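Methods — Computational structure assignment.
A single polypeptide chain was analysed. Its primary sequence is given first, followed by the predicted tertiary structure written as structure tokens.
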Amino acid sequence: MVVTEEWASSTRLAKSSEMKVGIVNAGLGNVASIRRMLERVGAIGVYVSSQKELMEIDALVLPGVGNFGEGMRALRNADLIETLKTLVYVDNVPILGICLGMQLLCRNSEEGSDPGLGLIEAEVKKFRSSADERLKVPHMGWNEVRPVSYNPLIPLTDEEQRFYFVHSYRVVPDDPSIVIGTANYGGEFCAAFQKDNIFGVQFHPEKSHRFGMALMKRFVEI
């Protein structure tokens, strides 16, 4: 499934406002705040923690805070990995990875030896200071995200769009063309990506007030 502007517009007209969005609940993040935001934008947010529950949703949110290896082990212990891959690859269910969830969609991370889901060909690398600038890690607080191409989540506009970040690692895609939004912290980095029905954002929409709410609304309307 390739998302084009025409496809996205027609699909928004066809979708019910009561989209059932599964929030992967494997102990990875603040699922309650994500559910509240989904409900505020007109979707039905449901916690999913089993294969059966995953098969009953229209879209997926993979949240996450903390350690990459621990996150993958939590998904493995819940026996969710293969079902997640089937939903995304075979059934073309839209998925949004948030913060650590974005990183778990990738191939691997410098934060441990566990492989990621591998839905995106990318590596996750730690922020490092340069000779000219000592970075405080984690990168924490509000930062501007600049869209770099048309996409369903972050509109191409001259208006400043700010989101809340808390992370020590950044995603480095093999294919730079999947980057849809960038931010700057010791240099430009990937703040959001899209490959077909797979989306990831390094920031926390559920903590980003009106910009986060607008992004979640666009996601449930895909």
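Note: Helices lie at 5-14, 31-40, 51-54, 68-77, 81-89, 100-104, 209-220.
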